[in-house]
Amino acid sequence: MSSSRAPEPELTMADLIDTSRIRIKTARTFNSTMHICGTSATENYERALELLTMAMRSCLCARGIEHGKCTCKYFETICDDRGSIFRSAMRDHVDCEVPWKYSKCDDVLHIEALDLRAATYEAMGKLDLAIKDAEWMVELAPQLPDGYLRLGNLARLQGNEEYAWNMYQSGIDANMITGEGSSPKLQQLHALRRHALKKDPVCLPAEIVGPIFSYLSWIEILRILRVSKQWKRVLTSPVHGGLWRDIVFPHRFWERAPLPSQLREILSWAGDGGARRIVINNGNGFTDPIVTQLLEASPSLEYLKLNYVSDPSLRSTKKIWNQLRSFTIRMSHYDRPRVDSPRGFPRTFLQNATSSLEHLDLEDMPCQWYHEPSSLPLLPRLKTLRMSEHLHMDDRTDYTPFPIFPLSVAFPRLEQLWIDSDIPYLTLEPLEIWRGKWDDVWPHLKVLKFNCTEYLDSIDIDAAISHSTLRYLMSVKSLQHLRLDFKSLDWNDLFRGRHSLLSHLDVAQYTPSRNLRSFILSSPISPGGARTLVSNAIETGQLTSFDIVFPEDSPTGNIGVRSIRHLKGYEWMRGAPSIHTLGCYKFSFPLDAETDEDLPLPQFLATFPNLRTLKICSWEYSTPEFIDVVVAVLEVTRLETIYTPCVDGLFFDQLRETAQDYGVQLLADIPKEQWPMPLEP
């Protein structure tokens, strides 16, 4: 009798899978037992992977070939492009180097082995390998739900809910002929797809719903309340009161004013305190009762803007708006009645908000402010004031100088003052307010802007006084930012103390602010006048931004002579280390300039060691000629940003590439300043 043992039977694919299941179960048991070392679980997982790999290689479809990763089918990209996973999986691999032509298998044991191996990789934290196996399941058997289910679950594990939903849907689409109850895996696909469906947004938590709908205006939200009763119930509930606290009526929304019943309901949704912000951009049809209803239902109002409201009298004497911080009013056909009368300026309304009002914006000031300082509301907390007139052409021949200094008594803590269009003349009267008390005049004023559409010429006594008034205001010690926008035929004499008509004024002894940080102009002033205004700030190292506006060439002189002379007048400013932003406008140097003497601007700019931003524009050149000037500047400076509106189209693209070669960003539009200006501490 032979003593040799009989050979052990070869393990089948099913045997290998069953053995691997035991290993996986053992590994999971080890992982759930805290006092057992994790290496035991890892060893069992690795042995299970070996068995599963052996099982897959024993399948007839493998043919002994090691399959690499496909590089021509990206299922996630296909989903993003709304393509069909099933159709993609059914295609041959013709665009990648994977060495197989037919890659399909209907052996459920092969798919089961792949599924188990993907689950094992997932348990070991090797998601990339798990995803590779799941994708291969879809490739091998696109008609079965297994691969879609595994790949969708892995996508959810990575937080990619949209891809997971698309994968579940793809598995269902691939089995459209088969009923939902035909297999447990298909039932799972349907259940998971329903779970992953996009939820009704109003069913989400309130902290998510609020921000979503906050991107819509209250008018848009009002329309979508019609979607369902649930939407209306949720979006008008107290928890979403914030959606109804920003009430903005756009220019053309209301053909007629809203009904009182509509307003009452909308404001009730805002909750206690009503609206926080009310803006009426086109007030046609908004009568005083409607405005009053809006206001009285909003005692916590913080921002109010009324544009061309038909009857903006605001005659309420109630002191309930103790949180109102900003008020803007524009009048239409203002007939200048008495303060607090119908269609009159709402002085009492403002006075009642004295404890909170910080920002005031007026167009068409009450005529009483010109002659009766007592008509001014006393607003001790007011920080910013913008005021302008809106005169008809017939009114422009008889300007009345505006007394600016009574405002310093009514608004003592003002930080920003903008005197806008159609107030061309300012007056120093009454002198007793400020003479001998200059330190008490707006000790907190940091921003002064003056815009005027009229020519102010010193030969006119009112214009001369207006210049001197501005010069006094520039001497406020706290002033940091100055903006002047007006035209003058005698620009060369501005702010140089040459007003013979005003010899009785002692403006020269009032030193311009040493704290000035920026000075922006729209029209030329003489280099000597500029020196008077900013030399102190340069000496203290405070001035960082300055504009130079060049005068027009004389019609009878040589081109560029006046610009060259004007720039030479700024020799006193050359090399100022505090300057980091300069504006250069309306210059005109000789077109055939070959030396620095003929084109002195680049070398002038090169003297500023910390210059980083340049705003440059001159329409006196053709586009190619202007580009030559900019390139000459780039060659000798260390700029970071250039703003120029003078170049566009292909020329701008070419200049931007050139600027990039010098490490400079080129931008087409000079940025507009905010109002109120954001101030540094």
UniProtKB/TrEMBL annotation:
InterPro entries: F-box-like_dom_sf, F-box_dom, LRR_dom_sf, TPR-like_helical_dom_sf. Signal peptide: none annotated. SMART domains: FBOX. Residues 198-247 form the F-box domain. It comes from Claviceps purpurea (strain 20.1) (Ergot fungus). This is F-box domain-containing protein. SUPFAM superfamilies: F-box domain, RNI-like, TPR-like.
